[in-house]
Recover the amino acids of this structure.
């Protein structure tokens, strides 16, 4: 299993959603991390090239979308294939500024594999599977891409954050 986390920051008021690669905690959500770890199961799997950041801009009560917002590469020789999922660390995006009681439920942030129709709301209690493959990856790895959509609620202008974790697992 290969796992990599990154931070999502949502700025409301001319809302902007920023994802930065490799953050392990909300405090370090914008600090990039260049490596991904691989844990041996039957076959090794690696995940690399996670997008270092993206942004979405909009206003409260608007739906904002970005195609190909996050890209990554998965490599495994496992003949049974692999899956890729994403999960939010917390149930809500929290404001950066102190004194702001607003929260944005993470379910308002949705993901889909690029080229597919249906968005799935993110959750902190279970991962959303964005890719399943029943064969090994290409020798140099498979390039994957996910789209994001956010339904911006009526909230105070601020930056809102949550950590997302992408996980690649052999089948």
């Amino acid at each position: 299993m290969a796992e990599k986390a990154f931070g999502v920051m949502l700025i409301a008021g001319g809302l902007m959603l920023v994802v930065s690669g490799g953050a392990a905690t909300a405090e370090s959500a914008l600090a990039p991390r260049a490596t991904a770890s691989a844990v041996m199961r039957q076959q090794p799997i690696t995940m690399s090239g996670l997008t270092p950041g993206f942004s979405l801009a909009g206003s409260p009560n608007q739906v904002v979308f970005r195609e190909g917002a996050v890209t990554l590469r998965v490599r495994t020789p496992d003949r049974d294939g692999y899956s890729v999922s994403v999960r939010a660390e917390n149930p809500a995006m929290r404001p950066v500024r102190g004194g702001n009681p607003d929260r944005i439920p993470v379910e308002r942030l949705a993901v889909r594999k690029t080229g597919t129709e249906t968005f799935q709301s993110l959750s902190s209690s279970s991962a959303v599977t964005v890719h399943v493959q029943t064969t090994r990856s290409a020798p140099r790895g498979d390039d994957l891409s996910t789209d994001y959509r956010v339904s911006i609620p009526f909230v105070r202008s601020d930056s809102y954050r949550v950590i997302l974790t992408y996980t690649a697992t052999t089948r």
Summary: The mean pLDDT is 78. The CA atoms of residues 43 and 78 lie 5 Å apart. The radius of gyration is 16 Å. The longest strand covers residues 63-75.
